[in-house]
Design a protein that fits this description.
The protein has 685 residues and is α/β, with parallel strands linked by helices. Among the domains are: 43-259, Class I glutamine amidotransferase (GATase) domain (Rossmann fold, 3-Layer(aba) Sandwich), CATH 3.40.50.880; 615-680. The chain is globular. Residues 1-37 form the signal peptide.
């Protein structure tokens, strides 16, 4: 009888014990062949691939990546010399470990025709193999992206003024920092600003942003489509980088694209500098359409209008408003101007007394003692003024000693009054001392030395003239956004009158400046001076400022003490900004209100980081739940990761970064005796 398993007359069950032991050891220590070896976990580099068709949607996402410090590589579809996107372009092997070169992919739409079929297939295989997300920057609603056609219960058309809502899945996921409804901008009723296709979700599609549709139910404008082992973020409305709806959603798009783990960070910054505190400001003349005291004002520029200066009641209101609004302003002060006012008004100055008594309510910044022009000596015999020359034809400048005294005396006065002031921060009058085009094309050569004499590290500049930070000797500039709330008005009617003069054509009685300045636009008709400020200027200025806030821009905004006096016209703008912000963003995403020095530090770190990226001196990747980043010595790296992320120390770990917008982020450097930054992500990521 034949027995199953008989080999050489023995059954398998009759093997000697020693043979069984050797067989067991071989089975556990020697792989049966190459297929039995477990592939090492892939390395995924923290870089985004952007396939650019030149359209506004891809450009908007690129601007968000650049602005927040996320490394990316752009392939321009219109470039005949562009690389071919194939398997070798997308992945390779490093030290025996497979490497995905990009952690996310941005495409103009789900299947750009400018990419060949082989390139699209390579991207699909790459995304499937390495679980790489793909953003379809702008497409239409159709089954190929997980949506019904708009004719099947959806909607399409102009989206201006349409209210949309973040879904529960959106709030639990990449858009967890948004709270209230998101209404699409409608800044020009006679112009279509955004178009969209809202489709009903199909199987595999999770909606993140939707709108109600006729007949009941809701249709999606942004959502995730999971299919064929891939994930796509599908966006079905048009946008550009400046529109509020994109700015609100931009952070979440990047979070989805990177699974919440990326280089770069994003904050919503807003700080307000109130210049000329203690000093009076000149007043706009509504009859002559100029400011008496200015050299271009008729009748010799005599003081024919009363100056504008806060009262003690205005100061009390400012302190009360701050407490009720939960927002702190920076008082940029001129102590010497206040002393001059006191001398000219019987030796008493209740305003200064009130502000000094409330000094702890505010932050304070040195604005020089008497607000002089710190640049060249001005020759006002001509309009516009010119820089005065000496006998040899050289430009005459304010001396180093005079500039240093203005800075020192103002600082010392504050210290003597118990006002908390940081000597490293400075705002000069009219940003003077810095180059002023066209008259003074270079900084006062005496300025840098005077800054050093006083330990100044951060000097304000005007963002409308110099938007980029630059060195001034050992100090650096901090560009500030001028708000269109003028220094020389105390009432809403004065503000509207001057606004009309600037933004109305000559034919309609204005200056016509708006017709000759390419950066300006004329009003279709002059504003009503009794209602124009509230109805037109306030919402417009609030919208502009909120745009800066939502663009990760740390630059301060500046106004003047006159705007806190009389009609107190600044507060409606600030109230609108704060209300709009808090109505949209969740409590986990508060406004960040940086000091002057903090804004300067943020800009300096970004400059160093961008330089390191441009030079290819940053390496960053993820293997499983481990993140490793190396950067040049002394360069802080911006990093964003999920809650629960730990930073690895020489001994043990510590919570990484600070909480913001539902994640954690920070500028960081390697720990002591470490050459790289290493993070451990939560296991659920």
């Amino acid at each position: 009888m034949q027995t199953s398993g008989v080999r050489g007359g023995r059954t398998a069950g009759a093997l000697p014990a020693a043979t069984l032991l050797v067989t067991a050891l071989l089975a556990t220590t020697v792989p049966a062949g190459p297929a039995a070896a477990a592939d090492p976990a892939p390395r995924v580099d923290l870089t985004v691939l952007v396939v650019d068709d030149g359209g506004g949607a891809v450009g908007a996402i690129t601007s968000e990546l650049k602005g927040s410090g996320v490394p990316y590589r752009t392939v321009r579809l219109s470039d005949p010399a562009r690389p071919v996107i194939d398997a070798a372009f997308l992945a390779d092997t490093v030290s025996g470990r497979p490497r995905a070169k990009y952690q996310g992919v941005v495409l103009p739409d789900e299947a750009p025709q400018a990419l060949g079929a082989a390139e699209r297939a390579a991207l699909t295989a790459y995304e499937q193999k390495y679980a790489i997300p793909q953003v379809d920057a702008y497409t239409w609603a159709h089954p190929g992206v997980g949506l019904d056609y708009t004719s099947e219960g959806g909607r399409s058309g102009v989206m201006d003024g349409v209210r949309t809502d973040v879904t529960a899945a959106g709030r639990a996921g990449p858009f967890r920092y948004l709270d209230g409804p998101l209404t699409f901008e409608d800044n020009a009723p006679d112009v279509a600003e955004s178009y969209g296709y809202a489709g009903r979700p199909r199987a595999g599609y999770t909606s993140y942003l939707d709108v109600p549709v006729d007949g009941g139910g809701r249709a999606s404008l942004i959502g995730q489509y999971a299919h064929d082992g891939r994930r796509e973020l599908v966006v079905t409305f048009a946008y550009n980088q400046h529109q509020r709806q994109f700015r609100a959603l931009a952070r979440g798009i990047v979070e989805w694209l990177t699974d919440g783990v990326h280089l770069g960070q994003n904050r919503n910054y807003f700080s307000v500098h109130v210049d000329d505190v203690f000093a009076p400001d000149a007043r706009w003349d509504t009859e002559r359409n100029c400011t008496p005291g200015d050299i271009d004002c008729a009748d010799g520029g005599g003081e024919s209008t009363p100056p504008i200066r806060m009262t003690p009641a205005d100061a009390q209101y400012a302190a009360q408003w701050q407490r009720s609004s939960g927002f702190t302003m920076d008082m940029v002060y001129n102590a010497g101007s206040g002393e001059e006012w006191k001398t000219q008004n019987g030796g008493s100055d209740p305003l200064t007394a009130r502000l000094v008594a409330d000094r702890a309510q505010y932050r304070w910044i040195n604005h020089t003692y008497t607000h002089p022009f710190l640049g060249c000596v001005q020759d006002t015999s001509t309009v516009p003024w010119t820089c005065a020359k000496d006998a040899t034809g050289k430009t005459r400048y304010m001396s180093r000693a005079e500039i240093a005294a203005q800075i020192r005396d103002n600082h010392n006065w504050a210290v003597s009054k118990g006002i908390p002031v940081d000597r490293t921060e400075l705002v000069t009058g009219e940003h003077s001392g810095l180059k002023t085009l066209p008259q003074q094309p270079a900084d006062n050569p005496n300025l840098a030395g005077a800054l050093a004499d006083n330990g100044v590290k951060w000097i304000a500049s005007d963002n409308s003239r110099e938007p980029q930070q630059r060195p001034v000797g050992a100090a650096s500039t901090v560009p500030r956004h001028p708000m269109n709330v003028y220094y020389n008005v105390g009432t809403a009617a004065e503000m509207a009158d001057e606004y009309n003069w600037i933004y109305t054509s000559r034919e309609d009685g204005g200056s016509g400046v708006c017709e000759t300045n390419p950066a300006s636009t004329c009003l279709p008709e002059p504003l009503d001076v009794t209602t124009g400020y509230a109805d037109h200027i306030v919402p417009q200025e609030a919208r502009i400022a909120l745009g800066h806030v939502m663009a990760n821009d740390p630059r301060p905004h500046y106004v003047h003490q006159s705007n806190l006096a009389e009609d107190r016209i600044l507060y409606p703008v600030l109230d609108r900004i704060l209300a709009d912000y808090r109505g949209l963003f969740a409590d986990n995403t508060p406004l960040v209100v940086p000091r002057h020095r903090d804004a300067g530090t943020e800009l300096s770190r970004r400059t160093a980081w961008d330089k390191a990226l441009a030079e290819g001196r940053v390496t960053a990747y993820r293997i499983g739940n481990k993140v490793t980043v190396t950067a040049p010595a002394g360069v802080h790296a911006p990093l964003t990761a999920p809650e629960g992320t730990r930073k690895n120390l020489l001994l043990g770990t510590a919570a990484f970064g600070t909480a913001y917008a539902g994640g954690r982020s920070a500028w960081t450097t390697p720990e002591v005796l470490q050459s790289a930054i290493t993070l451990t992500l939560p296991t659920t990521t």
